[in-house]
């Protein structure tokens, strides 16, 4: 029995009416529970044919695992505060927060239900002309404005303290950096793929690089990350992109967000190797994905570079040589974290539909082996891949 | 008017009597204010011929600058908590804390008045056979045990939060990484040295490396640092070493503590080039200093390496390749931070007696130029100096 949980639809509606003025007093409201995530309840409150709003409520444990894996409700505060902070710098690309109520661990926010989940859109090979630009700018602006380049010493440290997020970080620390690299009971491995996974578990040099990435995740409080920037956290239309669910937000290495996104585009690229549909169409789509990858990095790096040049406050960080090198470090980190995302989504606990929807086990294993191989290459070679061209070359070699 | 400040000696004595049982009820106690630091009052309470104790009280501003540079009293809590934490792992080498009282911003602690300040000991060329071992072990144990190698995810983040220390970090951020690399009003420069300083201010490649070190200082929460580990924070006898004053403690890059200490030994090495006394004796002393440098790194790296191998809890950080690489990173960082210490102590606000006691302005400028040159080399070449031998070679070349 969770005391703060809404008992029924009427409680959800009353909560929304108390804290917003979105609905007329005589409007008849309908509540549906739409949460497909793992650790929260998500309600849509809608007037049929009219306005609608989302209520997200956190429970004190991981929903799919149960009370055996407790999770602090503080993540709900962190999500609300992160959304508000992101909106300051990238308001076009996050849902608006209308209200946050700590005792209920509940947020009322804009409904983006007219958007499609990006993972489903990518699986359906839906061309999204503005996606890469929106996400590149979203990351550049949210990350730059919460970094030491922009914030003064006190502001930054106050924010670091507010966003210390041990429960959610622990999930990433385990699921990204431990489980997939050993024979862990939480892993879920397609049987034909087992030998490939076993080879990874023996690979001490790979594990040394993964340790370095984990150490960066644990230690490097560079900027306020979204912290869970996979395709399932993004909703899209032709002209609009909304990034939701920043409950994993904390101060970490900038490349973690960028790498998560790169990794998710590449997971789709691997999956499309064997997903259903016409082969020529799938191959054309995979080429489109690589173009999006280039555009994503282009928009991110151009905007982040511009912000560093124009808006860095700390005089000692205004040095141009250093700023160029910083961008290169972010690139290398991004490739490494993209690699860990590819691997953990293939053999770890939380899979992605981009691979899981390949029905035939053997065909799925081919796409999965590609994801593992690419993941390993990205981690091992990240500091030797100096540009996007180098990355695309590596990817194309893998495809041959 | 500072409300919490002790009004008179009787108030200090009453405070000590209230919170310790060190003195008999009829003991006649004497108070002397012995603070030679810049930001606190330090009282010795002693029974003549008997026991004694130290009371350290923080004021809400920098003592030598005045109310124009306010400083949070929270540093006093941080100092008390850091001393207690250090004592858990390196109790031989820190003064014992008897009491901390938040409303008074005052700590009662062990008196190490039978020890000599290490800076004075080094200037006097006093051989200290156990110094390098004590300090190497002190750093290895305090730093390892507060790192992610040892602490679990929640413990580490709780501590990071407790030791967020913006006011004191800001002092370092400015005095180490900004002032000495530009024509700042806070700098204090020996007139004949001005052209050398001006050349530094034009050196964009150097400033790029300093930016990288500052970024590490700002972002990398690797372990609980002492944060101000210079010769003046260390007290010594032939067989005993006590590290005091951790009010700058915060979670930062491990190499910052190690580098501060290396930098201070090298400042003395530079000063002894031109300090008073017999030249042969000074040169022999400088050789002894280089041996101490080797021993310091030897003891630190052996102990830190042993702790990583034997006591790392996180399975993903138990990788041997990674642990070796981590130690090399700490070495490179240490050299870089040693370089910034050399430079900021020579032309920044806070000088050291190792150089300032050279009476003749021209002679002093020679030793100071050596410190600046060595500092620059350490910063620029740090990732190319792969061992202690490489460092000693570099230093000896400089001396020719």
Number of helices of chain A: 14
- Biggest interface and residues each: A-B, 43 and 43 residues
CATH topology of the largest domain in chain A: Aminoglycoside 3'-phosphotransferase, Chain: A, domain 2
Second rung of CATH, namely the architecture of the largest domain in chain A: Alpha-Beta Complex
How is the main sheet of chain A built? 5 strands, antiparallel
Give the number of domains of chain A.
Answer: 2
Mean pLDDT of chain A: 95
Q: Report the span from N to C terminus of chain A.
A: 55 Å
Shape of chain A: globular
Bin the strand percentage of chain A.
5-15%
Count of beta strands of chain A: 12
Order of helices and strands of chain A: HEEEEEHEEEHHHHHHEEEEHHHHHH
**Unreliably modeled segments of chain A:** none
Strand line-up across the major sheet of chain A: 1-2-3-7-6
Task: Supply Rg of chain A.
Answer: 21 Å
CATH homology superfamily of the largest domain in chain A: Aminoglycoside phosphotransferase (APH), C-terminal lobe
The proportion of residues forming helix of chain A, as a percent range, comes to 40-55%
What structural class results from the helix and strand content of chain A?
Answer: alpha+beta
Name of the CATH class of the largest domain in chain A: Alpha Beta
> What quaternary form is this?
homodimer
